Every structure is written in structure tokens, then in C-alpha cells.
Amino acid sequence: MAASEEEPGAPTEPLDVACGLENLLVSAWPPGAGPEPFQYVPDLVAGPGADADPAQVTFPGCACLHAPCRPGACPCLRRGENYDAGARLRSVASGAPGAQPVFECNVLCQCGARCANRVVQRGLRFRLQVFKTEKKGWGLRASERIPKGRFVCEYAGEVLGLREARRRIQAQAAHDKNYIIAVREHVCNAQVMETFVDPARVGNVGRFLNHSCEPNLLMIPVRVDSMVPKLALFAARDILPEEELSFDYSGRFLNGTDGGDKGRPEGGERRKPCYCGAASCAAFLPYDGSLFGPPEKPGTAEGGNV
User: Fold this and answer.
1) β-strand pairing of 181-186 with 151-154
2) Calpha distance 112→109 (Å, rounded)
3) With 0-12 CB in 10 A as exposed, 13-18 as middle and 19+ as buried, what is 76?
4) pLDDT score of 259 more than 60
5) Among 60, 39, 89, 47, CA closest to 195
6) Quick check: 37 pLDDT over 70?
7) CA pair distance 77, 100, nearest whole angstrom
């Protein structure tokens, strides 16, 4: 037998789904397999119709140079401290209902990189793995224990305008996976701020998160450099190694909103089955009928996009 046949093959480098752009390698399972090609970005990027560039810095910085950032002294913490000493989101760790606005210190702040109000911007802190599921395509799971309240990952991709989000949704075939998420924040005077993110072609590890009717992650808009929020996912409970990570695509989980899908279609058309396996499974994935509105007429402005 030839020597080349007797010697075991040289070990191959493990696949890093994140292409070296995260703090930690994101592995894939099974070995030798990998998800469909896409452009990996660790942060939000401006897409068609976006009202603002997520990379643009528009917030002023704090002047906490000689003392730690504290409520009452740091303008970034005017709503109180966001994280406890263990870097856990306080509203989740305490079990408080609903999610409070989160503003982290930014690139113009004079506090150091070790400031306790810098969590989401630091990126991945727990090892994650993309894996092939039985019925849901690719999924994402924890490779180590993640304590309740800790930041897990962002849902990053292209920030779109409403018109482009609708165009992409309506161009999808029945079997296509939908990655577009619409986040609506209710602010003062009954106004609603909308953010549309699509990681299908340009995105991060968050694009592999599946829906669950009983999820272990909670999505919170976190603002750092501008009003364009990072869609940050925090552990809603302690998460065990090898446990699949999931969030509620409807945004209702722990947010105190009503339970109805927007524009629920009759007869189940456009509804896709849910395979989360939870005891309270609704059988279908959440449906947002606002993204299936009538196409705009040329030259019509809507949602701040022309």
C-alpha cells in the first residue's frame, strides 16, 4: 500500500461561518457541510430605501472620563442602568414585563472600552454553532451555557425602506424562506418607528435563528451610535449547551402586546407551518399582512421613502 494511503489525511480547518469577522469562530454541523453562500457582515448595513446609514454616528458622546458611567451623571443612562455587574440586561434578568429602551455608550463617549454600558457593541461572547435541523433547514444553537439576560447575537443585515421590504416579500415564491423582519417601536404621541432588516443575502449569524412559540431569546432594539437600532437578542432564560436558539418572529414574547397576527389571511394562504414543537405551538409561523400591501404607484412616497 502506498504511503499516502497509509497515512491519515491532514486535519482540515473547521469552517467558520462568520469568515473571521466575529470575536469567536462560528462552527457548522455536520462536518464538511455548510449553509448556502451569503455575504457575512457583523453589523447592519444600509440597503435600498433606508432612511439612514447605520454606520453613521449621529449621537453625541458622554463626558465620563474620570468616573464610571452612572445614572444621573451619564446622559447615555438617563433611563437608568441597562446592565448589571454580570453584563445581563436588567429588564430580562429581573423578570420585569416589557422591554425598556436601551442606549449604549458610543464611539464619541469619553468612557473607556471596558465601560459597563458597552455590551451589544462588543459582539459575540458565547460560542455558537450553525447546524442542520430535521425540518427547519439550518438553525443556530449554543455551544456552551448562556445565562439568562446575557447578550447572544444581533439580527444583522440590510436595513431597508418599506417599499423595498414589500417588493422583496412579494417577489418570494411559496417555498422561499423569508428573512425580512419588521420591528415596530411605539413612541410618544402614538407614533411608531419602523425598522426593516433583511439578512438573506447580506447578514450575520442571526439569519439562522428559527422561530419558536416558546423561544429562549428576546429581541431588544439597542441604540449605540444613531437612532437606527441594533436588533439584539438576549437570553430569556438560562440556555444549555447544544440547545437550539430561537425567538418569536412576531415580537410578542415578553413584550406585553396582543396576540393577533397582523392581517391574518383567510384559508391559511401564505401561511407557513411552524415546526417549533412547543406545547403552545400555533401551528403556523407569524404573519405580518402589512408587508403584503398593494404595490405603490411610481413617484409615491411612503414611510419616509421616495
Assistant:
1) unpaired
2) 8
3) buried
4) no
5) 47
6) yes
7) 12
CA distance 135 to 146: 25
198, 157 in Cβ contact below 8 A?
yes
- Cβ atoms 82, 90 nearer than 8 A: yes
Rounded distance between C-alpha atoms, residue 223 and residue 305, angstroms: 22
Question: Is 34 within 8 Å of 28 (Cβ atoms)?
Answer: yes
3-state DSSP assignment of residue 220: strand
Cα 48 to Cα 43: distance, rounded to the nearest angstrom: 16
Q: Is the pLDDT of residue 268 over 70?
A: no
Residue 46, strand partner residues: 159
Contact (Cβ atoms closer than 8 angstroms) between residue 72 and residue 80: no
Contact, 48 vs 161, CB < 8 A? yes
- Count, residues in the chain: 306
Could you tell me if 223 and 121 are in contact, meaning their C-beta atoms sit under 8 angstroms apart?
no
What distances in angstroms separate CA 256 from CA 29, 82, 99, 202, 279, one per listed residue? 36, 19, 9, 31, 20
CA angle, residues 302, 304, 306, in degrees to nearest 5:
65
- The residue-averaged pLDDT of 199-218 equals 97
| Location of C-alpha cell 457583523 | 42
- Radius of gyration of the chain, Cα coordinates, nearest whole angstrom: 21
Name beta bridge partners: 141. Answer: 129, 244
pTM higher than 0.90? no
Q: In terms of DSSP bridges, do strands 157-160 and 192-203 run parallel, antiparallel, or are they unpaired? A: antiparallel
**Parallel/antiparallel/unpaired status of strands 246-247 and 210-211:** parallel
259: how many CB neighbours lie within 10 A of its CB? Answer: 7
Percentage of residues in the chain with pLDDT exceeding 70?
85
Report the 10 Å Cβ neighbour count for 260. Answer: 9
